[in-house]
Amino acid sequence: MQYHSTRGAAPSLGFRDVTLTGLASDGGLYVPTAWPSFSAADIASLRGLSYVETAVRVMLPFVTPDLSEDELRQLCTQAYGRFAHAAVTPLVQIDQQHWLLELFHGPTLAFKDVALQLLGLLFEKFLAGTNQHLTIVGATSGDTGSAAIDAVAGRIGVDIFMLHPRGRVSDVQRRQMTTVLAPNVHNIAIEGSFDDAQALVKAMFNDADFSGRFQLSAVNSINWARLMAQVVYYFYAAVRLGAPDRAVAFSVPTGNFGDVFAGYVAARMGLPIAKLVVATNVNDILHRALSAGDYSAGTVTPTAAPSMDIQVSSNFERLLFDLAGGSVADQMRGFESTRAMQLTNMQREGAAKLFTSDAIDADGMNEAMRWACAEAGQVIDPHTAIGLAAAQRAGLAADVPVVTLATAHPAKFRDAVERATGVRPQVPGRIGDLFERQERYDTLPATFDAITGYIAERAHARP
Ligand SMILES: *Cc1c(COP(=O)(O)O)cnc(C)c1O
């Protein structure tokens, strides 16, 4: 499989290089040059397979020829062996129509573990036997950071610098990052928003000199390998609910458009998906883009679902590219200079075939948390609640199963869950002593010079 950039001016690369590179050198994102195609018979043959075997079947076309089937199986076995549930991503039924796909059984209790546990192993695999040293730079609104840090802590050949917006991640989220004391882990609290952090990371990648000197790599969902790993659970869940004979809808609490883009990829590969519900909180740029063609960034409003407090959704570029059928360099450059753009008619019509969207406010979110409790005894987190509220409001036909992606364990957002439901979720035993552990992080202003100076002092430059 070869990958090309959404902006048309970077070299095509294979899977190994795309994984190690992250962002393309022209500022675009890598996407496969063709979508693998699964026939109904191929999908039917996934019935009854374990999560790991499903993962091998779904991902093999994307990693060939850089990994063999056995190598991929070994990596998946190791990555998903660390999950606390034998099904890795179990389905839970709420009522006749609605299901939750629990994606939070990994080591840091967030769905991002599903992709990042694999990505950490891919880095190690591809760096082994080379003298390369990767510097991973990431921005996190909470969950990416802890999942990425867990995935690479102590790994040889990799340093990680993780930027989070100071005071805007939950205490559990912050501690999950800052209590990892491995010497290759560097946490930076920036005096700014998540979008500021993300813009700084983008600027570092766009600085060819800095990026080349330290061999920067990404763990944000701009990294293709992450999205690829997320495609798996759409197949896994849909097959269990009747695919390929029955189409299934998914509702996805969305920030950077990574998780829901993985659903789009599954559909492009042939999985019968009735609808993808793009669920945002009041930071609703994606809802405005999909419902009115208006992709314009406002200011970020902090909410109880902080991992979705985003006004610029990096991965949306991948969808725009696929729907346009070619480079979106001009469109994206326009957006980058004015922070606003319109979707073309072709993009709007293409998106409308599969996507619907909704923006859920605090009342809608709290109501969904209470409904899940009352209806099925399920305590869900604020992000999941936004997905569930949008799923209920999407007006889907009664015979279509609707799967809401449960993206975080409720214990990560205990205060918000308790306020809405009166139930205080227990922190699972595997992260039980989090509040006794020592923290380590530095606070820096949100400026390019401050951050690059800090990294240059600590990272490994190319020999
Ligand atoms: C990251 C995250 C999201 C948003 O996922 P994207 O891939 O950025 O759209 C939603 N919920 C939780 C809990 C997250 O951590």
UniProtKB/TrEMBL annotation:
Gene3D superfamilies (alphabetical) = 3.40.50.1100, Threonine synthase, N-terminal domain
Instruction: Name one molecular function that GO assigns to this entry.
Output: pyridoxal phosphate binding
- CDD domains noted in UniProt: Thr-synth_2
* Keywords, sorted A to Z: Amino-acid biosynthesis, Lyase, Pyridoxal phosphate, Threonine biosynthesis
List residues modified as N6-(pyridoxal phosphate)lysine: 112
Q: What pathway does the UniProt record associate with this protein?
A: Amino-acid biosynthesis; L-threonine biosynthesis; L-threonine from L-aspartate: step 5/5
Q: Per its UniProt entry, which superkingdom is the organism in?
A: Bacteria
- Extract the SUPFAM superfamilies matched here: Tryptophan synthase beta subunit-like PLP-dependent enzymes (SSF53686)
Q: Residues in domain Tryptophan synthase beta chain-like PALP?
A: 87-329
All residue ranges annotated as the Threonine synthase N-terminal domain in the record: 2-80
EC nos: 4.2.3.1
Q: Which GO biological process annotations does it have?
A: threonine biosynthetic process
Which reaction is recorded as catalysed by this protein?
Answer: O-phospho-L-homoserine + H2O = L-threonine + phosphate
Q: Pfam families recorded for this chain?
A: PALP, THR4_C, Thr_synth_N
Q: Which cofactor does it need?
A: pyridoxal 5'-phosphate
| NCBIfam families listed in its UniProt record | thrC
Q: Which family does it belong to?
A: Belongs to the threonine synthase family.
Name under which the protein is recorded: Threonine synthase
Please name the source species: Sphingomonas pokkalii
